[in-house]
Amino acid sequence: MTATDPALTALSQGWIALSLLHGKIETRVERALQSGHDLSVREYSLLDVLSRQHSGPGGHLQMKQVADAVGLSQSATTRLVTRLEDRGLLTRYLCDTDRRGIYTDVTPDGLTLLSEARPTNDRALRSALDEAAENPELAPLVRAVEELKAVPAQGR
């Protein structure tokens, strides 16, 4: 393939459109969460992922699993967890069966903040998608995102 190959150009244009949609969504949601709840998108995502854990054996995520779930490096995730722990929104503890494993849980204050922030997140997301749907280049991606929500998660 060359740089002028139409397939490569279409692929590049698709990637640019996807990046643009992601940026628009993240910017809108970030502003809403910051102004309404003093949370970043990453902080909200981390609280959301951790809140979906269940109690009991195997019901908690190790830090590497948390990093994978929120799309950050382990070191960035550790810094994020530390910030939220300092705010009283998370706790960390050692695994009972493997002292090398560190688990993270959302505190009651973290769960309260998450439940207060969830409608804000959802409204900002809906608003960003509605605005993007008006752009002919982004409308197909918006439809694809909207269709994904109806697909059950596999392997979770």
Can you give the mean pLDDT? Answer: 86
The gross shape turns out to be globular
Helical coverage, percent range: 55-70%
Major sheet size, sense and barrel closure: 2 strands, antiparallel
Radius of gyration: 19 Å
Strand order of the largest sheet: 1-2
Low-pLDDT runs: none
Structure characteristics:
two-stranded antiparallel sheet; mainly alpha; 64% helix; 156 residues
Task: Summarize the structure in words.
By secondary structure, the chain is mainly alpha-helical. Helix content is 64%, strand content 6%. It has six helices and two strands, in the order ααααββαα. The protein has helices at 6-37, 41-51, 63-70, 74-86, 108-133, 139-148, and strands spanning 90-94, 102-106. The chain has a two-stranded antiparallel ribbon with strand order 1-2. The protein is globular and about 55 Å long. The mean pLDDT is 86.
Summary, kept brief:
This protein is mainly α and 156 residues long. The chain has helices spanning 6-37, 41-51, 63-70, 74-86, 108-133, 139-148; strands at residues 90-94, 102-106.
